[in-house]
Specification:
Elements: H1 9-30, H2 37-50, E1 54-58, H3 61-71, E2 79-83, H4 88-96, E3 100-104, H5 118-121, E4 126-129, E5 152-154, E6 162-163, E7 166-167, E8 174-178, E9 192-196, H6 199-209, H7 230-261, E10 276-277, E11 283-286, H8 290-299, H9 329-335, E12 338-341, H10 349-363
Helix pairs in contact: 1-7, 2-7, 3-4, 3-6, 7-10, 8-10
Modified residues (N6-(pyridoxal phosphate)lysine): 183
Keywords: Pyridoxal phosphate
GO molecular function: pyridoxal phosphate binding; transaminase activity
Length: 364
């Protein structure tokens, strides 16, 4: 039985339960289930938190990436460069526009996109670059500027993270994030948002999320139905007021893990890229014989996980890209060694000590 979960959503809910109940009662009373006042209020609050002028709330994180790409006119015949080491949604959003995902390898120490390989992937058909802010730290977006291609940040795991003092969401041209329940800022269901400094791009996303409709029963473009529910906006606003404190607790927990694991042989610790202030969505280590170690942790009641076990090019969905095992050796090696340890703001010292003891025993 798992008694130290990977993520403890129950503990987080207890902190906001009363505020959420009051907010939901107001929504239920007014029956403003779609497009209620609270959605606009959350968009303004989240934009201010991420230090960008525009936030457009949408149905989920995958939609957020797709709509950001479509706002840049990405479509059939275009190419978008992204890391092979990412959740499948990054590639999926590109494919849904009709464009082709073009993969590059990652850096072993951080798991982030290897910028040195991007030049080989960029062609005249490249319409966007999609760096992924993995595990809670930002990719080196500034190093991608020289290509002169629009940059779409996949910021689903990095709400509140910074790079060289700039909050994610404002590093590229446009950014997408997810409010899936397990995220640092999670809803009670699906949700997502697009962030940008461009009023033009924000307007394009707003149009696309509402059936291409600037006003009721007018449809100037082919659009989608991807809106954040009012009930979820209430949850997100309540959690957003606590997010900075929760992220600080995550940093403290990550520092504690690093100290406790410093002398454990066989465990490679995560590396923070210079200039980054991460928010530690995940604390990911690398170990030999990963599957055996993971099974041992589960037997000890430790809810460890893998993010992610299969690089994009080795999934059945993307065999048509024509890649084979060995094409992205770092991503493949990382995928076979990574373990995500339990990490959430409320994790206790005793819980972390138990996780470390179990991990040390499993590796030994």
């Amino acid at each position: 039985m798992i008694d130290i979960p990977l993520v403890d959503l129950r503990a987080q809910h207890e902190q906001v339960a009363d505020e959420v109940a009051d907010g939901w009662a107001e929504v239920l009373k007014n029956t403003s289930f779609v497009g209620g006042r609270q959605v606009g209020e959350f968009e303004a609050e989240f934009a201010a938190y991420q230090e960008v002028p525009h936030c457009v709330a949408v149905g989920n994180g995958t939609d957020a990436i797709e709509l950001a790409l479509r706002a840049l006119d990405v479509g059939p015949g275009d190419e978008c460069v992204l890391p092979a080491n990412t959740f499948i949604a990054t590639a999926g959003a590109v494919a849904r526009t009709g464009a082709t995902p073009v993969l590059v390898d990652c850096v072993a120490e951080t798991g982030l996109i290897d910028v040195s390989l991007v030049a080989e992937a960029v062609t005249p058909r490249t319409k966007a670059l999609l760096p992924v802010h993995l595990y809670g730290q930002a990719a080196p977006v500034e190093e991608l500027r020289s290509f002169g291609v629009p940059i779409v940040e996949d910021a689903a795991q990095a709400q509140g993270a910074r790079r060289h003092g700039v909050a994610v969401g404002g590093l590229g041209d446009i950014a997408a994030t997810s409010f899936y329940p397990g995220k640092n800022l999670g809803a009670y269901g699906d949700g997502g948002a697009v962030l940008t400094t461009s009023a033009e791009l924000a307007s394009a996303v707003r149009l696309l999320r509402e059936h291409g409709s600037p006003r009721k029963y007018e449809h100037s473009v082919v659009g989608f139905n991807s809106r954040l529910d009012t009930l979820q906006a209430v949850v997100l606003s309540a959690k957003l007021r606590r997010l900075e404190g929760w992220n600080e607790l995550r940093r403290a927990a990550a520092d504690r893990y690093s100290a406790l694991l410093a002398d454990v042989p066989g465990v490679a610790l995560p590396v923070v890229l210079e200039g980054n202030v991460p928010v530690w969505h995940l604390y990911v280590v690398r170990v030999p014989s990963r599957d055996r170690v993971l099974a041992s942790l589960h037997e000890a009641g430790i809810g460890a996980g893998i993010h992610y076990p299969t690089p994009v090019h080795l999934t059945g969905a993307y065999v048509h890209l024509g890649h084979a095992p060995g094409d992205f050796p770092v991503s493949e090696a990382v995928a076979g060694e990574i373990v995500s340890l339990p990490l959430f703001p409320e994790i206790t010292v005793a819980q972390q000590e138990r996780v470390v003891a179990a991990l040390a025993e499993a590796v030994r």
